Every structure is written in structure tokens, then in C-alpha cells.
Amino acid sequence: MMYRQLTEQAEKYLRSLYQQDDIAGQLKRKLADLMARGEANADAACRALRLSRRTLQRRLKAEKTSFQKVLTEVRAELAVNYLKDARLKSLEIAMLLGYSNISSFTTAFKSWYDVPPAEYRQKFLALR
């Protein structure tokens, strides 16, 4: 049940990316899918895209981005989507996004949105 909801949220995010046909857009789609399986790393992404690591780096550089930047964008977007689901605990969200602990996730979230995830969630849920 929970997996299906997460998959639906990831698919919603993926649909928003389909207008991006560049390599960064393709990588975002693959990473969102890989993240749901706990495989959001460069090697898995390269296999999924059927590109060597060097080719992926070169093509991302040509688009003025990097694997790490794209991974961060996907995590930031999915974090917000997951926090909107009150049934998901922060630790579950951290794990889904590939963080080993809640502290790492909280630090990253604060760097993206200037508020901790719990505060973001409270504000979002208060608006509903």
C-alpha cells in the first residue's frame, strides 16, 4: 500500500519532468525511479541511461550541471512531495531519499528551503 503511494508521488514528479528532454531531464527521471528502489547513485544511473560515467559527466557539464546537482534537485522536489503525505514519517522520507539518518536529511532540507522538514510539514498541513 505504502509503496504504491510513493510510486504514484514519484510518477507525478516524473510527469512534470517529461517536458525536459535534455540529459539532465533524463537523469532526473531515472533518479526518481532509482530512488524508490534505494539505488540513487551514479553507477545505477549510468546503467539505466546506458551511458558510461565519463559520457554522462561530459553531457551534464555541457548543460552546465553535474550528477550531484541533479540528484540534489530530485531529492529536494521529492522531499516536499513526501512531506505533504502526513502518513510518512520523517525518517521514512530520509531513507526514501537516500539519507542514512534523519539528521542528514534535516540539514539538507534546511539548506534547500530555510526551514526544517517538520516545520515545513506543519505549515503545509495547516494550509489544508
Describe, in plain words, how this protein is organized in 3D.
By secondary structure, this protein is mainly alpha-helical. The chain has one domain (2-127): Arc Repressor Mutant, subunit A (Orthogonal Bundle), CATH 1.10.10. The chain is 74% helix and 0% strand. The protein contains eight helices and no strands. α1 (2-17) crosses α5 and α2 packs across α3. The longest helix is centred in the middle third of the chain and has 17 residues, at 67-83. It is globular. The model has no long low-confidence stretch (mean pLDDT 87).
Shape: globular
Strand content: under 5%
Oligomer: single chain
User: Average pLDDT value?
Assistant: 87
Brief account:
The protein is mainly alpha-helical and 128 residues long. It contains 8 helices and no strands. It has a single domain, classed as Orthogonal Bundle (Arc Repressor Mutant, subunit A).
Topology of this protein?
Elements: H1 2-17, H2 23-36, H3 42-49, H4 53-62, H5 67-83, H6 90-96, H7 102-113, H8 117-127
Keywords:
128 residues; mainly alpha; Arc Repressor Mutant, subunit A; 8 helices; globular
